[in-house]
Design brief:
heterodimer; A: 558 residues; MutS, DNA mismatch repair protein, Chain A, domain 3; Rossmann fold; 3 domains; six-stranded mixed β-sheet; B: 353 residues; alpha/beta; 2 domains; 29% helix; globular; DNA_mismatch_repair_MutS_C (chain A); ATP-binding (chain A); DNA damage (chain A); DNA_mismatch_repair_MutS_core (chain A)
Chain lengths: 558, 353
């Protein structure tokens, strides 16, 4: 699926509903590729797992919340495993994250097991407890929700920490003693930082300047700031503290290096579990997305068969307008399927719906339909909408042709969705091109759907034709000036239902009716009607609805 | 005074009105007081991008003092500098230029650099995490260009630091402090229509006009784009107020002043007001006013009479002059606390350790 196709199918708006909960899942989402022909077995297995997940989520909502809670808490340890693989020594935060992975991973494993969720045997990591014990030394090895190096990794650290506390207490006591002695001699108190800020006008300023127990730290026009010089005891304690701290650093480095050596043999197992959890996360996110559009499992088949297919984004948009999406029922066999129908009648929506459902199926999603079967195809391409390529300096027609040229003669059979090919150039050549292209594609072995207004396309041999219901004109539209009101009136009376075309249906000619109701001046409409009559003198003026056209042998009645 | 500050509110921001205002000194003093009071405290900084140096001065950011049991959120590599001092409680999804933001509890008295999280929303999320870990007081260190730290949407109250570095003369410092304090203490709106208008402006991200009986959402997102059309609409007499979804700048205020109308301007909260004091006075002379939906509680002004750039002011004179312009808000000098300071009742007392 190229960028044009994604845009045409409103893919980005659907794709955002696919939200993996772990950061590794989010990374995997970015790299997710569709299932390809030859991968039918894996594809169906993936779908089967999702059906299982969906059943579980619906039957045990609390269990589903627990699993989602665990997934959302699991940190991504890929970089830590890589670091260990390369002989590196993780830091404190990384050890914490590995511990968190183990903590939530064990819970996830338990909840998956309790939920009888099959399909993730790799979660049964036999080394969970061993790695947990390494990171949580001490009796019981109960996994903690925090990480500290002072947690029994090395008895030397406990001794050093005690020494450090004692030294700090001694230092503070000595500092206070020194400061108190100074304050015995001067009528001033030290501030929170243990400094004396003295007004320049203070009588004792000179004495403080001369006092060898303190130093002048700063001086301004208004005051002088003094700080006590450390006593010999303070110097001694400071040196001792520095020694203890150096030793702490050394022991800490030893502990981390030892941990790295001990955990290193478990890296392959941890990576296997990480991958399994990522798969679970991806499948879970697929399931949740599909749940939002009431997805069903597509089966494998040579034709694309969709019953009551929906486009979730368009459905939502219509819902916001107070309208209801008309589900799409269609069978697209190899060769060409043509959609005909009036403007605004739902042909493009049907194309988008088919494209979206097939694409979602390829990405392993349950699809928004009541029933669906489809083949895996190597590509899905849509030439829908105004494909004007501004940067390439191409017109609508030029851009369309460039895209067609790329896909029409592919040797591998894919799904090609075409919307009104040839509309961007003069009608005679446009129709000729559209018909010739349809004829060419009808001889191929790919799946092509072409929505068109050109009647000759449906005369091509082996082309299957669907039509949208069209405008119900039993009621005449009231005269309104506001285009939005006219649009609403038209939409209210439009039958968007896609149904197999029968020769008795005729060819829809409702453009003038719609144009009139959308506000084109009546003289323009009458002028257009006269021109149609002039070209086809035997015909009556089209009044909308199905009408056999000249040369349309397939529905010409005697 | 500091005791009241750390015991009065569940969260407190420290903001500086200029670089080198002395914000860290005040932040450290509040931390020390919270520790003395035995308050379970958490610390976080809101900065430009978790940078290690002050983005304006290029000076290395000073570490803050952290006391045993305190929670801190900062870039995880900064905890790794002294791993024995910390117990890691969590790693957040937020990242700074220095690495992911982690939350750790201090195992002993220590120091750490606070690498800032960048948005108000993230500070709010961190606050939730701090509370889950038992924090009763959250101290937010605001970068000087980030008045948003003091937003009532982030912390319950704020302390504003006025340093000598705000100006080269005491008069300049006082004048700038006066304007800044007025901005930070903009009154809360009591007009029901204006309250409704500001809420609507926030919800829709559009400028909202308050008429005599109506509230109208304009298509404009600010007063800076599409002003001519808006000006025409505002020119008639029906409008008595305007609610803005974002900031009020001097340019925007000048435009409103040019209408020569006594307009009431509603903002979400005071840190969105970037207008100058002189502009606000001119608006007031027209009969207009600027009010907010959420008021900022400015608990104290902390003063620092020494600028690291080399000049200083008489501490007593500076304090007296700030008190004259700060509308009764207590003025504290955390380094000269042995001097007399007014307490809540205006009584003077000796604050000693």
């Amino acid at each position: 699926m190229d960028a044009w196709t994604k845009e045409a199918l409103l893919w980005p708006e659907v794709w955002v509903k696919f939200r993996p909960l772990t950061s590794m899942g989010q990374r995997a989402k970015g790299a997710l590729s569709p299932f390809m022909p030859g991968e039918e077995l894996e594809w169906q297995e993936t779908l089967e797992r999702q059906v299982h997940l969906l059943t579980f989520a619906e039957e045990d909502p609390d269990g589903a919340v627990r699993i989602e809670g665990a997934l959302s808490k699991l940190p991504d340890i890929e970089s830590i495993l890589l670091h260990l693989d390369q002989g590196g020594v993780p830091g404190m935060t990384e050890w914490f994250q590995l511990q968190e992975f183990l903590r939530w991973g064990t819970r996830l494993q338990r909840w998956v097991r309790d939920g009888s969720l099959n399909g993730w045997p790799d979660l049964d990591l036999t080394v969970w407890q061993q790695v947990i014990s390494l990171l949580n030394p001490g009796p019981g090895s109960r996994i903690q929700d925090s990480f500290s190096i002072n947690r029994g990794f090395d008895p030397r650290l406990e001794t050093l920490t005690k020494q450090q506390f004692q030294l700090e207490r001694r230092f503070v006591a000595e500092k206070e003693r020194v400061a108190d002695r100074i304050e015995d001699d001067y009528p001033i108190s030290r501030n929170r930082d243990g400094e004396w800020i003295v007004d320049r006008g203070a009588a004792f300023l000179d004495a403080m300047r001369q006092d060898g127990r303190m130093e002048r730290a700063r001086e301004t026009t208004f005051e002088v700031l003094f700080r006590a010089l450390p006593s010999s005891e303070m110097v001694k304690i400071t040196e001792e503290k520095a020694r203890v701290e150096r030793e702490q650093v050394t022991v800490t480095e030893e502990v981390f290096a030892r941990l790295a050596t001990q955990v290193h043999p478990f890296v392959p197992d941890l990576r296997r579990v990480l991958i399994a959890i990522t798969h679970l996360d991806i499948d879970w996110a697929r399931m949740r997305a599909a749940q939002s559009w009431q997805g069903v499992r597509p089966s494998e088949g040579d034709s694309i068969v969709i019953a009551a297919g929906r486009h979730p984004v368009m459905e939502q948009r219509l819902k916001e307008e107070g309208r209801v999406f008309t589900p799409v029922d269609v069978e697209v066999k190899r060769g060409v399927t043509v959609f005909i129908g009036p403007n605004m009648g739902g042909k493009t929506v049907a194309l988008r719906t088919i494209g979206l459902i097939v694409s979602l199926g390829h990405y392993g999603f349950l699809v928004p339909a009541k029933e669906c079967s489809m083949p895996l195809t190597p590509w899905v391409t849509a030439v829908i909408g105004d494909a004007q390529d501004v940067h390439a300096g191409l017109s609508t027609f030029g851009a369309e042709v460039v895209r067609l040229a790329k896909w029409v003669d592919r040797s591998d059979a894919g799904l090609l969705l075409l919307d009104e090919i040839g509309r961007g150039t003069n009608p005679v050549e446009g129709e000729a091109l559209s018909v010739a292209l349809t004829d060419h594609l009808a001889k191929g072995h790919g799946w092509v759907v072409h929505a068109t207004h050109y009647r000759e396309t449906i005369e091509i041999k082996n082309v299957r034709v669907y039509r949208t219901g069209g405008l119900n004109q039993t009621k005449k539209m009231p005269v309104v000036n506001a285009p939005e009101t006219a649009r609403q009136w038209l939409l209210d009376r439009m039958n968007f239902c896609l149904q197999p075309w029968q020769p008795s249906d005729g060819f829809p000619q409702e453009a003038l009716t719609i144009a009139a109701q959308l506000g084109l001046p009546s003289e323009v409409i009458v002028g257009a009607q006269k021109r149609i009559l002039a070209k086809s003198p035997g015909d009556k003026l089209p009044e909308g609805g199905a009408k056999p056209g000249k040369g349309d042998r397939r529905w010409k009645t005697d | 005074m500091l005791r009241r500050l750390v015991t009065g509110d569940p969260s407190l921001a420290v903001i500086g009105l200029s670089k080198n205002a002395g914000k860290t000194t005040v932040f450290n003093a509040l931390g020390m007081e919270a520790s003395h009071q035995g308050i379970s405290t958490a610390m976080v900084s809101i900065g430009v991008d978790g940078e290690e140096r002050d983005v304006w001065s290029g000076r290395e950011k000073p570490p803050v003092r952290v006391y045993r049991g305190f929670l801190v959120a900062t870039a995880s590599p900064l905890f790794e500098e002294r791993p024995g001092d910390w117990e890691i409680q969590g790693v957040t999804p937020f990242t700074s230029a220095l690495g992911p933001i982690a939350i750790a509890r201090a195992m002993r008295d220590t120091r750490v650099k606070l690498a800032g999280v960048t948005t108000v929303g993230r500070v709010q999320e961190l606050e939730v995490l701090f509370r889950q870990h038992g924090a009763k007081l959250i101290l937010v260190d605001g970068a000087y260009d980030r008045r948003a730290a003091a937003s009532p949407l982030v912390t319950r109250a704020a302390v504003c630091v006025v340093g000598a570095s705000l100006g080269t003369s005491l008069d300049e410092v006082i004048e700038k402090a006066r304007g800044a304090i007025r901005l930070l203490t903009l009154p809360t709106t009591t007009d029901p229509s204006m309250i409704q208008a500001v809420e609507k402006a926030c919800a829709e991200g559009k400028v909202v006009g308050v008429g005599k009986d109506t509230i109208t959402v304009f298509p404009n997102r600010s007063l800076l784009v599409g002003w001519e059309e808006l000006r025409e609409r505002l020119a008639c007499d029906e409008w008595r107020g305007l609610a803005l979804p974002g900031a009020l700048t001097d340019t925007a205020l000048e435009r409103l002043i040019s209408l020569r109308k006594p307009l009431s301007i509603g903002l979400v909260e005071p840190t969105r007001c970037f207008a100058s004091w002189s502009g606000m006075r001119r608006m007031a002379r027209l009969g207009g006013e600027i009010t907010c939906l959420h008021a900022l509680v400015l608990r104290a002004i902390a003063m620092n009479p020494v600028s690291p750039e080399g000049w200083s002011f008489d501490p007593a004179e500076m304090k007296e002059k700030i008190e004259q312009v700060c509308q009764g808000i207590p003025v504290v000098d955390v380094l000269r606390h042995d001097r007399t300071l007014p307490d809540q009742n205006g009584q003077e007392h000796q604050e000693r350790r």
